[in-house]
Amino acid sequence: MTVTNIQFPIDLSAYKPLVLNPANATLTQEQRESLKTNIQLCRDAIVFFTATGAARGVGGHTGGPYDTVPEVIILDALFRAASDQFVPIFFDEAGHRVATQYLMAALHGDLPSEQLLHYREANSHLPGHPELGLTPGVKFSSGRLGHMWPYVNGVAIANPGKVVFCLGSDGSQQEGNDAEAARLAVAQHLNVKLIIDDNDVTIAGHPSKYLPGFSVAKTLEGHGLKVLEGDGEDLDDLYRRICEAVTTPGPIAIINKRPMCPGIKGLEGSTHGHDVISVELAIQYLESRQQTAAVEYIKSIQKPKQTYTFLGSSNKWDANRNVFGDAVVAVLSRISEAERKQKVRVIDSDLEGSCGLKKIHDAYPEIFISSGIMERGNFSAAAGFGMEPGKQGIFATFSAFLEMCISEITMARLNYSNVLCHFSHAGIDDMADNTCHFGLNNMFADNGLDDGYETRLYFPSDANQMKACVEAVFFAPGLRFIFSTRSKVPNILDKNGHELFGSDYKFVPGKDEVIREGTQGYIISFGEALYRALDAVERLQQEGLDVGLINKPTLNVIDEEMMAKIGNAPFALVVESFNRRTGLGSRFGSWLLERGFTPKYAHLGTHQEGCGGLWEQFPHQGIDPVSIINKVKDLVR
């Protein structure tokens, strides 16, 4: 864990531990003032240490933790009064609100306050979502958005007679998991109390605009929950409603209406408040609060840079997740408006800015549907649109969420649907959100039978290949999954220093590609691991080891000609950022053996929980160039 001798510049010892009895729903003047002081202190602290993530480039989320401080501070006071009456854990199904967990761990003495200065840094044990067992004071792993309430139901069943809280949001309540959790909680009369921040903001927009019929309160009432709705910034009313929920048996939802980031100039009510506060706005806010030392600390932060020079690739880097959108727009621009409206529909799951879909939304809004955080339903809607021959549904989200859609993928295949899927944030690169957001199990999409409707998995290695891939497969029938990383990637060069996938290149689905020839063995790679593997090959060749490199951009099709080439070589090493248990390498060795090939075989992939940070994830997993070089040298001995 990172240790620092620098003092946390906001005095957290000013926090006044308060004890509140839920049997008395009226605050005294002294209690009210203590709560207000604690709330302001915590909000200042959250703005400050999340802004260190902005300054370092590792990101983070400010708005959600900042919003929910009043309810968290009240819960803390209740837990201190009667811990035997509660399960004293701040369960939260909006995992990106991790700053809440870290701040409370520091206030409870489990985490040095100075550790907060390293929010989301590599090896700091402060990843972008809480992970049980990694961070002192963190008492649960939240996983992805909207996955916690069903789990909390089980906690309530295991703790009869105790009250269990689950912090939620209008975004997390859009996930289908919560509908199922609501029905069980009501049917079993579980003593679960939801505290929902209903601020009408998610990543890409306002639910009241893109889901105009959706109401958190009416939805939960329809499931049978008692709902206590009010102003989350009205401290007396908030406390009264929480007390009523605690003293009333059964599942209850406390819904708090407030704008996003109340009181932060430039962010209040804005979708930008969902993510990390900008350095500029953080400084402006902290200066208004006379937090001079905090401002000076933020100003002193130097953004870390990747200083390694990768051989074999250019100094031109681009984000394939955005290039996907550009490539789709280019294809759509060549067909008429009438044909676009008839044959193509794009369905977003509140991540259009992260997956490149915003490019399509801006260019052709008439074919774009802004939907909510409902990956399963949105994928199926895209598949249903693509059921008729000649029609294409387009769907995109993060690769970590592919696992949630496996059943829907099967149904799409059984119905001969045509869907072009873009799953961004594949692998582990630049993933400060860490383990729960790793896009590791993408091969799960290839879960059909040999004679099933065609499914193809593609992972282009640079911006040029992404464009060529989209061009080649856009109008193809079947399910097409195109993966990209969160990180930017450099353009791959040939041995003469020219762009390998330049203007003359044509992407051929199902064909592997020789990046470098070699006589002593081959590395097989793809995606963002390819340029790292290429660097390793270039350096090995400089040392006199004639090692080659194969790009496998179509992950689930066997190229028999290339398989023979690799199989007759002295060794084969698969390098990927997918899960070692489920990725390409877990299949590739079997493919070789089935064909009678027996080269030395090894496989490098993601195999342990993450370390946070950005590019640091690759050496942490042993799939960086140095680790690849060492593995090759083991194989050629």
UniProtKB/TrEMBL annotation:
Family assignment from sequence similarity: Belongs to the transketolase family.
Cofactor section: Mn(2+); thiamine diphosphate; Mg(2+)
Protein name listed in UniProt: Transketolase
One cellular component term from this protein's GO annotations in UniProt: cytoplasm
Pfam family, one: Transket_pyr
Domain called Transketolase-like pyrimidine-binding: residue spans: 318-491
Database matches in PANTHER family: PYRUVATE DEHYDROGENASE E1 COMPONENT (PTHR43825), TRANSKETOLASE-LIKE PYRIMIDINE-BINDING DOMAIN-CONTAINING PROTEIN (PTHR43825:SF1)
InterPro entries: PDH/Transketolase, THDP-binding, Transketo_C/PFOR_II, Transketolase-like_Pyr-bd, Transketolase_C, Transketolase_N
